[in-house]
Each structure stands twice: as structure tokens, then as C-alpha cells.
Amino acid sequence: MPVENTSYRGKQILIGLQSDLTGNVLSKAVDISAFVTEFTSNETPQTKEVMPMSSGGQQSSTITGSTKYNGTMNMSIPRALLPLIIRGVYGKPTTSQALTADAWATLTATLKGDIVKLTGGKYLVAQNAGTTGATEPTITTEVDYQDLATLDGTVKWKVRNALYERLVHKTGFCTDKFVIIQRRGEGCGSLNVSDKIFENVDLTYFTISKQDGAVAADQSIPFMAETVRRSSQVDFVDVTVTTTLNIREDYWKQDDILIRVNGAKYGTLLNFELTYTRNVTQADSTEPFKQIQYSDAPTLTGTGTIRYDPIEYEKLLPTQKYAVTITFDGIDGEYALFEFPATQFHTPAEDIAGAREIWMKFEMKPTGNATTPMGTVDIKTSLNIG
To answer: Would 113 be classed as within a structural domain?
Structure first.
């Protein structure tokens, strides 16, 4: 009988909304194991050394207080997962529903990226500009993400089984909390043991960038947790996940990002990075679930490089505010639109080196107040959670 290699440990990371956890049952969770390259967690108890007068010169005991839990997920973020990360860092969605799209119509001019809905409820995404035919297309053997085998008039369609829209109207303090489940498998067996369950988790930082011609999906996402269940605890109770959602491995590509300033395309973009920091800390608290607190208002910044253009150089004055939109768009119906209505720019800096063309580096800072948020996000995705 062959001997199993029991030194192997299968690994699984699941993430779900804290609001979906009732008792020990989590109604939905997303399996992000295929995208996490490294998962680290820390438990740091607050301690104090006691040195009484009667110590006799000997080292005395350490008093242990509350414990702080935090960690980091190094991962690549596919398009479908972005709305879940956004609602944990950027803000809760004010609209969360199946995508509203126009019904398919005969002999209708269509642009690349347009979305229509068929009678049966599925969606079609236009892969080119054209005009629809006389009869509504029929899906026969095509599955999600596949192109229809025949043209509809002059339009080529991609099939999408389902699309959902999340609209975040306001950045700020109100974000969602999460449950993160770290599982392992014994030997080559199934992943049936939860090592740790992190509850009331706050995500604290997020960045998305376009570097060297591609939209970078690799991220390091720090998190903080109020409580942790460990399988080594005597009173450990595992969490049962009712529905586990899996995500397709799709990422935005180099030509999927577009930045507009006051409605016009901003230069020839070489690279760009948008960073959102929540500025939360773990404070000592006598109340449960009150450890994680804001130390300051969230910060949102953008930096980038464009090819030098004297018109663009003079256009953005530090004393003015501009309407900026950043669009991440593919041709399969998944889409993210960031809108910042009052954005300040620092004076661009010229970057001159060697024989290459002159570059121009810029920094931007979206602004807002209690009544007008610094930004909104509109995301269309295939992930239905929350």
C-alpha cells in the first residue's frame, strides 16, 4: 500500500462579509486561494513588566492584557474581486443590484462595450461597433465569457450569464467588515480544518496601478481583526460556509485604463498609481469590537507619468480644482469608474534622462467635505456578494 506524503499541507483562504455571519454559519464566502501568494498573521498581546519592591533583585512576572490581531494578504486581484475589496477599504455600496441594461433591440446601432439584456435574462456585451440584426440572438451552446458563434447583423457579442452593479456614493469612515477563514488540509486530504477564523476584520490599505504597460494586479493588503478563533483553543467552534464562490482569473490589461480631466483625456499615460489609506489603528479598549479606531481621516492620492506636453504642463494649476475620472474597462462587461469632482494637482515635474523622450510626473489629491465626498466608485462585476 503506498504511503501518503503527510508533510504536505493544502491551504485555503476564504473571505466573506461579517454581516453574512450568523452564529457559526457564513452564508457566502469567496475562495481567494488561487490569488493569494502569501498570507501572514500576527497576535500581539499587550504586556507590562512588574517590578515590586519585594522582588529581591529577581525578574518578576509579566502582566498580559488585550491582544491585537493583524496581518497581510499578498495577492493578485482579479477584476471580479475588486468590488469586495473596495467596499472594505473605500466605502459601503449605496446601490447593490443586478445590472440594469437595455433590452436587445432590432436594427440598433451599437458601440464596442455596450451591454444589452436578452429575453431569458442573460447579458450580451458588444465586442465591436455595428448594427444589430432583425432577430434577437439565440444562445445555444455558448457559456459565460464565450462569443456567440454567429454575428447579430454586424455585431459580435460576448455572453455573460450574470452581471451586478455596486455604486459607492461616498468615501469615508463607513466601510464593511469581513470574516477571513484560514484553512488547511492534512496530507493530501480535503481542506476541512480551519486553522484560524478572523472576525470583524478591517482592510486598511489599497492601491491599483498601471506600470510598464500593464495594470498591476499584485497587491499587499494589510488587515486588522477584533477577534480570532484558533483551532488549538479548547472551546473552538468552526464556521460553516453555506456557499463558496469562485472567481475567474481575469485582470485588467494595459489599454483598459483611461484618465480624463474635465472630460478630456489626460496626456499619454505611461504609468499611474491610485492609493487609498484608511488611517486606522488598534487601540486598547475595554469594550469588545471597539479596538479598531480611526487615527485620522482617510487619504487618497494619485501619482503618474505622461509624455511631456507643454499644453498639459500649463493646464493644471495647483490653485484650481478639476473633475477627474479614472476608468478601468474591458470588453466583457466588467468595469470600474472612479470619479473625483474636486481634485488638486501639484505642479508637474519634468523627468529628463539620457536620450529618451522627456517625461512629466504629476501628483493629484482628490478633496471633499462632509456634504460633498472626495469620490464615488461605480463597479460592474460578475461577483454577487453583498
So the answer is: no
